[in-house]
């Protein structure tokens, strides 16, 4: 079986569950497929197509799916009825005529976020095929991470809005501070404070309202020039990516800015993009693969990517300290135009 071919097709269709069903059936010859998504609030797994619901409390060692869930390991059963863990109600609720079965738990941050079950594979499907099937693990993970990434974005946007309110509150407090400072400081000191305050305001405005709508015009203008630098921004928070992209887009030396919202997508772009990536802005906590894992892969001695400049954009101090050897530069969040400009100037010694 050509799992590389299946992987390539799934890469373009993993967001559509019906397409995933069809591609897996065509690629592996499997007759029955269940894709169970996890509902954390109700503590249950549900299949959107077959409308099967399995509550967590029933997932025990007395079923094949329960064993896979508890051990967090994929299972391939060649003769399902002879397996000691076979449970008709959980493993074959529609009492179908099935001989074999594969159960794959999808793990994210050490939790099972979904379960993929393939029943009644062709007789030619072997243990070797099961092992080779692991090449699809990262694609399977993307299927289940779509909703999680969206929910995390919503939480972050809400949190970001509250942070912006705090920033503007700080500005109003700054005005009061100037009034007090003016009674005990020289005019030069007051001017210095005002200048710093104005720079902060500019950065806040850029963060609150980056010129995202103008990106298309900037991209078109840049393609008319001879630009050589290709950039990848890898961060699972869409808002952060758009803000950083907006701040970078005015730089005339940049040819193209790619974006990735999870670690798997980032690696895929780094290794397979037609445009060689020169600079990688890299977050740490991302679905699929952590930033430090990506950085290790890029910087390894045997890697063809080791010349890529990696800029950390995480605020996780433990990561910054323990893995500082993996990163060339660091920019804290929230991003500021000044910090972005300084980093680019340091790298290329020009604006």
From TrEMBL:
Key word Ubl conjugation present in the record?
A: no
Please provide the record's keywords in A-Z order: Kinase, Transferase
Q: What Gene3D superfamilies does the record tag this protein with? A: 3.30.450.40, 3.40.50.2300
Which molecular function terms from Gene Ontology are attached? kinase activity
Q: Kindly give the PROSITE patterns that the UniProt entry links to this protein.
A: RESPONSE_REGULATORY
Keyword Transferase among record annotations = yes
- What InterPro entries has UniProt attached to this entry? CheY-like_superfamily, GAF-like_dom_sf, Sig_transdc_resp-reg_receiver, ST_Response_Regulator
Q: Where does the record place a coiled coil?
A: none
Task: Output the GO biological process annotations, alphabetical, semicolon-separated.
Answer: phosphorelay signal transduction system
SMART domains with a match to the protein in the record: REC
Response regulatory domain segment(s): 230-348
Protein name per Swiss-Prot or TrEMBL = BarA sensory histidine kinase (= VarS = GacS)
Organism, per UniProt? hydrothermal vent metagenome
